Amino acid sequence: MSLHLLVPPVRGVQETSLVRGHYEYWHYVCDGVDDSEEPVPSIAEIQDILVRMEDKPGGFSGSREWIGSVEVALVLHQLFDVPGKIVHTRSGRELEEVFDKLKTHFDQTGCPVMMGGDLDASSKGVFGTCQTSSEKYFLIVDPHFVKTDACE
Fold first, then answer.
1. pTM check: above 0.85
2. Of 52, 78, 115, 130, which sees the most CB atoms within 10 A?
3. Chain centre distance of CA 57
């Protein structure tokens, strides 16, 4: 399900730029199942992929070095041919500065963006931009959302 299709339009919208194509949004416990046990590449497999891609030196395999959003984007591109874009923002004050960059990104490529940074260390999935004559909005798909009974 392409989740953004379920979001009602913003009143007075003048311009919208969105992801293109179909995608599925799976957040923690979205289907009543604890997804933490789902088969995904192991840390060792991810490390080996990054070494084979020559993003990391051979000593990275089997190490305890950090695998961050950049590495996740590289692995997704390698495994599934899905390009990634990551935007680092130090605080909410920088959102105005990145809005036009993200709008252009969606217009040109249509692929999702991971955005997060210093004060907001939790990455967010950005799936579009929208603006009215006086406001600008990001369409956020939060990968950290956990379904609860209150969501029913």
1. no
2. 115
3. 26
